[in-house]
Write a sequence for this structure.
């Protein structure tokens, strides 16, 4: 005659099997497409620079202009002029825009193919 405790042990703790678990799927012989390490790093720099709403607005204005944009023409982005300068510097560091000083004003233009690294994943 078995005890109640023995019945509980059998039900709660079934014997552990050493048989390998069946595979859920067979791996593909071809590697999945994706970015290599270098391309991912380049795309991350661009995406990080454009992740800020103010920088995105600034970049869209500069990239959409037919010719270089004077910093004096960049207004109404919702932040003060020193903050605009900070964001423009971040866009330059990311390689998205370039600039040139002409007298007292600075003119900005988009760097051709700068967003190519991010465009591949979008």
């Amino acid at each position: 005659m078995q005890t109640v405790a023995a019945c509980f042990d059998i039900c709660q703790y079934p014997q552990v099997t050493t048989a390998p678990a069946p595979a859920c799927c067979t791996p593909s012989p071809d590697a999945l497409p994706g970015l290599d390490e270098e391309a991912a790093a380049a795309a991350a720099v661009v995406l990080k620079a454009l992740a800020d709403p103010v920088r995105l607005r600034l970049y869209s204005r500069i990239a959409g202009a037919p010719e270089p944009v004077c910093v004096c023409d960049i207004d109404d982005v919702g932040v003060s002029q020193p903050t605009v300068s900070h964001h423009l510097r971040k866009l330059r560091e990311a390689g998205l825009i370039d600039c040139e000083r002409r007298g007292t004003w600075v003119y900005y233009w988009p760097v051709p193919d700068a967003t190519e690294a991010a465009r591949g994943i979008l």
